Each structure stands twice: as structure tokens, then as C-alpha cells.
């Protein structure tokens, strides 16, 4: 859910333009990489959650213990990796938001803060999956 919120905040109001220009820019200090990173890890985390949810549903029907072991290790490894990536994302978005000038963000400041907040919450939700 947190990944979906981060993705929605960045896609919905993460890009804006100045009244004098039709050119869109990322509200995080005009750094397109910040918005792309947040959207990218948000989408991939959501898709991975759907995949691992389906694996959890079909897990009792998997009779091969080797396959079960690899699925559990894949879930553990992915959760650990995504914990690290959400931490990087939180630090990156927070840093870029700190350098953003207030006059550059006429609309979307609340969405930017929500994306930062839920990327922080995502760290703990992925840690809980890895433990």
C-alpha cells in the first residue's frame, strides 16, 4: 500500500510547470531522477508484492522442498534489497526536497511530503517482511 501511495503522489502531483512555461519538471529540486526513482521503486515494489502474494497463496500446493526453499529465500532477499532501496529513496527524496525552493512549488508540496513520509514507512514494512 505504501508503494502505491508513493507512486500515486509522484505521478499525480510530482510533476508541475511554471505558469509561464508548458514544460513539466519534477518538484524535487527540478531533479527528474528523484521522481523517476520514486515512481520506479514504487511500481516495482507493488508488482513484487502482488507476485509474492500469489506465491503465498500457492505455497501449500508446492510439494518440492527445494522450490519452497528457493521461493522463501527469494522473498527474503528481495525484502532485504527493497528495504535498502527504500532507504536510499527516502534519503534521496528528502535531500532533494530540502534543496527545493518554495517558489518553485506552487502546487504539490503536500504530495511531495507524503511521498517522503510513505517512503520512510516503507522501510519498516519491508524490514518486517525480511525478518
UniProtKB/TrEMBL annotation:
Keywords: Membrane, Signal, Transmembrane, Transmembrane helix
Membrane topology per record: Multi-pass membrane protein
Membrane-spanning ranges: 38-59, 71-99
Signal sequence range: 1-16
The MARVEL domain, residue ranges: 1-131
UniProt key word Membrane: yes
Nucleotide-binding found in the keyword field: no
Pfam families xref list: MARVEL
InterPro entries found in the cross-reference section: Marvel, Synaptogyrin
Listed GO CC annotations: neuromuscular junction; synaptic vesicle membrane
Location within or outside the cell: Membrane
PROSITE patterns linked to this entry: MARVEL
Main location class: membrane
Family from the record: Belongs to the synaptogyrin family.
Name of the protein in its database record: SNG2 protein
Biological source species: Mesembrinibis cayennensis
Gene name linked to the record: Syngr2
Amino acid at each position: 500500500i505504501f508503494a502505491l501511495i508513493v507512486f500515486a503522489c509522484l505521478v499525480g502531483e510530482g510533476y508541475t510547470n511554471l505558469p509561464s512555461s508548458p514544460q513539466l519538471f519534477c518538484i524535487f529540486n527540478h531533479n527528474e531522477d528523484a521522481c523517476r526513482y520514486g515512481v520506479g521503486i514504487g511500481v516495482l515494489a507493488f508488482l513484487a508484492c502482488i507476485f509474492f502474494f500469489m506465491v503465498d497463496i500457492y505455497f501449500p500446493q508446492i510439494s518440492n522442498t527445494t522450490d519452497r526453499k528457493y521461493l522463501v529465500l527469494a522473498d527474503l532477499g528481495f525484502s532485504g534489497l527493497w528495504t535498502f532501496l527504500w532507504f536510499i529513496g527516502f534519503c534521496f527524496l528528502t535531500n532533494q526536497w530540502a534543496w527545493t525552493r518554495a517558489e518553485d512549488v506552487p502546487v504539490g508540496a503536500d504530495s511531495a511530503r507524503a511521498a517522503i513520509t510513505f517512503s520512510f514507512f516503507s522501510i519498516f514494512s519491508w524490514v518486517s517482511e525480511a525478518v
